[in-house]
Fold DAGKc domain-containing protein.
Amino acid sequence: MDENRHAIVPILEETFYALSRKQLSYRVSLTPVGLYLTKRCDDDSEKIDLINIKDIIGCKSMQNSAKSNNCACRPTKNTENINECQVHIPYTEDADCSAYLCVYAYILKNKDMKNEKRDKMTVTLRFRNFNSYDENNKVATTWKLAIKSLLKARYEDGTIVAPADNQYLGNRLLVIVNPKSGVGKSREIFQRKIVPILNTADVDYDLHITCMQNDARNLMQKSDIYKWGRGVIVLGGDGLMFEVINGLMERPDWQRAFEYLTFSVIPGGSGNGMAKSISFETNEPYNQDPILISVLNVVSGNRCPMDLVRVETLTEVVFSFLSIGWGFIADIDIESERLRMLGSPRFTIWSIAKLIALRSYPARLSYCKINNLEIETRMNNFTISTFDNFHEPVTTENEPLSIEFGMDPLEEFDKRDRIESFSSIISKRTAFMSVNEASSFTSIPELLEESEVWVRGPISRLPPLSDPVPSDWEVIEDEFVMIHASYLSHISEDVILAPKSKLNDGVIWLLIIKNGISRTTLLQVNTSFET
Ligand SMILES: Nc1ncnc2c1ncn2[C@@H]1O[C@H](COP(=O)(O)OP(=O)(O)OP(=O)(O)O)[C@@H](O)[C@H]1O
């Protein structure tokens, strides 16, 4: 039981009856913390469940328009089971004037266990105090609007810096999909797993399917990005996010763009280091369902700042968010491209090949060492950010996770056909145009001329590459098997190089392996990267 429950003044409160178990009543209270379900037990005691507002992704109101033989008490897909019900009230065309409100949440199950995961939970509230649907619907709508404004407050909490010229369009999202990332299933993943969640969460989106290398980069460089107040998500790998970040850095208004936009990644690539690192830091059960966890991060509106690293070579400047590698791991990453169709196993296979033909490279490495991580860095992050999301609900023992008051309208009479054809995806206001290899996005006005491409972004505070490094830096001149600098914990889903790394700590973690390491030791190091 939640001791704080009675201290919170409910926004709305109503008593519902669980038709599946007669005489069982629930007091349902909507509070800023979430939905409290207070069950009155036979012995007059109470059991309280909390569905945290941070676990709720959306709600929909509906009407029963079914002409079915199912019982009003509990619909079944299999009509043969109808006789199991003792109070058989068949629906007729005008029998049910109730209004229904379905509240959708993803609840953390099996907390702190190996099989920790998020499960969908639907609470269906049936409003039928009045004899007319319109009257019942008014009450249901009041609940719906109240829940939605609580959800909206999560991402409109003042941390988005809206441009002064009124271009802010709040809830709109840009989704960039790389159909070639990973094993080439991104389009299918978008259709099957992401669209339903975006729809449930009422997130409007524009969709852009990349048609070639640098397509996302050009899009970010030239588009009117200020219409995507809800942010930019990439469905693909870290390479696609790299294009997004660097395309934005090429804009004259890069600073404002970075203040305005939020970014997110849904793993569709082979490595997926950024997606994994975010979930690792927020303790989300990524491995059970990486795509679900990442989409929930998007719709929940959680945000936190993330470090970018400016990388300068003799010929170019790029901005990096994951890592920069040289030698062993970089070779595996680049050379295993030819095995792309295998997905992430390509890295394992190629690492064996690289171990057999082990190489080393001469280099001079200079770096500025941090002596005290806590004192000299920003070890802040999610403890003070808006990302304290997704708590386990205070579920009472053995309670079913799906609580139903009346029937579940979504299952029975919201039988929209699953959209099989990719060309028929329609978001709230945007129609998706085509699926050929050409980009499907047509409505973005171009801001810059084709020829205007140069790197902007923040300037370096270090001496030029040709100058000596500051005197307090360490310098090593040697033969190296690899040097890898990471700024996120994971460089891929199963390679963790910097467990203590935080998204926003301003720290670069250096992993150095010098020549002379035996193949056996390197093999051990390689296998330990997973843990
Ligand atoms: N339609 C396309 N056809 C060919 N290449 C593309 C296309 N769209 C994007 N690309 C390029 O593919 C590269 C790799 O894409 P992405 O990062 O999405 O997948 P990945 O390499 O499998 O994943 P990871 O980077 O996590 O290993 C990107 O750098 C991008 O330049």
In short: Residues 178-182, 210-215, 236-240, 243, 269-272 surround adenosine-5'-triphosphate (CB under 6 Å).
